[in-house]
Here is the input.
Amino acid sequence: MTIPESNKMIARFMGLVIRPKINGYSFVELNDMEVVHERDLEYHSSWEWLMPVAIRLARIHDVYVNLILCEIAQMTAWASIEDNRGEKIRIINKHSEDPLTATYEAVVEFLIKYNIQK
Here is the structure.
């Protein structure tokens, strides 16, 4: 999947309206007053764009980001009532020299799986 395709998928997940293609290009409504060309979506290159996505994902699953890793996981039911231990199922685990890249790749991979399951 290309960066523009991935960015449009993220925009859809965030509830943004993607207008039908005109002359081969899509435009995305960021709000009532602002429309951008699909190539101007910056989820792949800006924490300002990507963090609201990570925050929204964190409402669905656990999202953990450090200097080289982004992990999206889901807590399973308690292993047993007596020991109160929970186990994580790792859904996505991406490593990169750049945490922005790791987070972006994890988000894209998650959304591909998320959209398939819908």
